[in-house]
Each structure stands twice: as C-alpha cells, then as structure tokens.
Amino acid sequence: MIVSVSVFLISDRVAAFGRYGYPGVFVLSLLSSATIVLPAPSLAVVSVMGAVLNPIGIGLAAGAGEALGELTGYAAGYSGRAIVADQVRYQRMVTWTRRYGLWVILVLSIVPNPLFDLAGIAAGALRVPVWHFLLVCWVGKTVKTTVFAFAGQSLLRVLPLFGS
After folding, report:
1. What whole-number distance in Å separates Cα of residue 59 and Cα of residue 85?
2. Total domain count, the chain
3. Over 80: is that where the pLDDT of 159 sits?
4. Residue 69 counted as domain residue
5. Rounded mean pLDDT of 32-55?
6. Which of 82, 85, 120, 121 is the most exposed place for a label (fewest CB within 10 A)?
C-alpha cells in the first residue's frame, strides 16, 4: 500500500523516467505495476517511447518491469495480508484461477484492466508457484506493452498527415 500511495503522489515525476530510454521504461513500468489499484502513467510512456525507440525493445523492457512489479500483489496474497475491498470480484477471480489456472493470469496480463491486481493477489493466496506466475505474467505484459509501443510508433507516422 505504501508503494501504491508513493507512486501515485509522485506520478508526474515518475513519468520522467521515460526519458532515460529502455532502463527508464523498465523502472517506470516496475513502479507503476507495484502499485495496487492506484493508476500510474506507464502505458502512455510506453506508447511515446515506442515512437522514439525500437518498439520491441520497449515492449521487452516494459513487460519485464511490469511483471516484476506485479509481485507486490502476489506477495500480498501469499502472505494472507491482502485487504480486498471488492470481495465479490476477488472471490470470482479466485474461482477462475482455481478452475483455469495460469490462463487467467495470461489473459488478464495481456488486456489492460484494473482486475489484474486481484488476479495477482488470488494467485499468491492460491500458492501458484511464483516462477510460474512471473513467467506467464511476463509473457502477457510483454505482449501488451509491445502492442502499445507499436501503436505509439504507428501514431507518430500518421500524425504528420493531419498537419497538412
């Protein structure tokens, strides 16, 4: 919770990490994903950086950072100390994770959504092996961030057409 509040309070300064290239995108993505529930600006920076640097490199750096950052939710669930306000959605996530396993983690990590924090907490509470969680999360987050990076690159190519 402390990480979440801290990143939220300094989110305008966190976006400045993007100017440091791939390592900056990695750190920004790590910090943004370490927040539980509160929003942070990582996908916007990923899109912009995808227009400036290699989108695949940006996707890999951001995906690794996001996956590692998601370990905060996993650890909260594993420790049993997670405070979940939305018990109905959390219980649904636990049920889905029990039934479908890592497929839930993969799909939710690819699609940008606020439910992934609940999925990480559920995975930790259900004692999904951490390296399984981390690997599947990394694959999904890398797919998502690479798509955002390529979208940023494509947008940069299209914008000059509207300026004439």
Report:
1. 32
2. 1
3. no
4. yes
5. 77
6. 85
